[in-house]
Amino acid sequence: MKRALLGILLSLVTLNAGEIKVAVAANVSYAIEPLKKAFYDLHPDTKIEVILGSSGKLTAQIKNGAPYEFFMSADMKYPEALYGEKIAVTEPVVYAQGSLAFLSVKDQNYTVGMNILESKEIKKIAIANPQTAPYGIAAVEALKNAKMYEQLKEMFVYGESVSQTVIYATTAADIGLIAKSSLFSPQMSHYKEGIHWSDVDKGLYTPIDQGMVILKKGEGNPEVKAFYDFILSDKAKEVLRSFGYKVK
To answer: Rounded distance, CA 166 to CA 133, Å?
Structure first.
């Protein structure tokens, strides 16, 4: 009986071994599967559970005890806050720099830059919620620096995350300010640069440095550390570049 019980316990330990929980900002949702695949090539026995959401909501969940071990944010502010509160055990580092892009299902004249938003055909503009999504903060900053925020703010349709903002930009709005990384996923390949999408002037918003940290629940876990190191590796950088991110 004792041997049988011991065997069951060992089986449970084996089943749970090698599983790590990673909280990932929504803008990385398009790149995370290729990143996981590349990681599995090196670490086939480690399984990664990904929890996607806006950086603000994920941070709130982490502070409330969510069992996440590693956090890939869309900015540096949230990882720095977690590190300052000793909920993260590694100092935040930048793993990628993201950027904003316009997206519309209709052909648009992007040669006019931000003035495209003043077109009579534009009635609704999708942006991420600046209360929870760093890309929403960047979108608001760009609009304010272009002196267009006040006149356009009643037209905003807010997505709770960047991925939801992409959905709104292609369904509930005429155009959206989204994470450029989303445009490099296979399901978005039918949207063409210069026709359906274009970069937002990078001079209008602060560079979107995306930071990551190992959380207290992942402290001392060698598999969490292995994934952390992998995200900073040349192979991961290659994947991130293929999704439009700037990496050093």
So the answer is: 13
CA gap 78, 62 in Å, rounded: 11
Predicted confidence (pLDDT) at residue 214 exceeds the cutoff of 80? yes
Q: Sheet holding 125-128: strands in order across?
A: 156-159, 125-128, 175-179, 100-103, 197-199
Angular region, 244: left φ>0, alpha ψ -120 to 50, beta rest: left
pLDDT at 12 over 50: no
C-alpha–C-alpha distance, residues 159 and 245, integer Å: 21
- Provide the CB-side half-sphere exposure for 49 (13 A, CA): 9
Please report, in angstroms and rounded to a whole number, the separation of the first and last CA atoms in the chain: 57
Domain check: are 92 and 110 in the same one? no
Residue in the block written with tokens 């272009």: 146
**In terms of domains, do 30 and 82 share one?**
yes
Q: Are strands 156-159 and 125-128 parallel, antiparallel or unpaired?
A: parallel
pTM exceeding the 0.85 threshold for the entire prediction: yes
How many independent structural domains does the chain possess?
2
The pLDDT of residue 163 is above 50 = yes
Burial class (CB in 10 A: 0-12, 13-18, 19+), 71: buried
At 18 the pLDDT is 86
Position with higher pLDDT, 35 vs 5:
35
Range of the domain at 11: 2-97+208-242
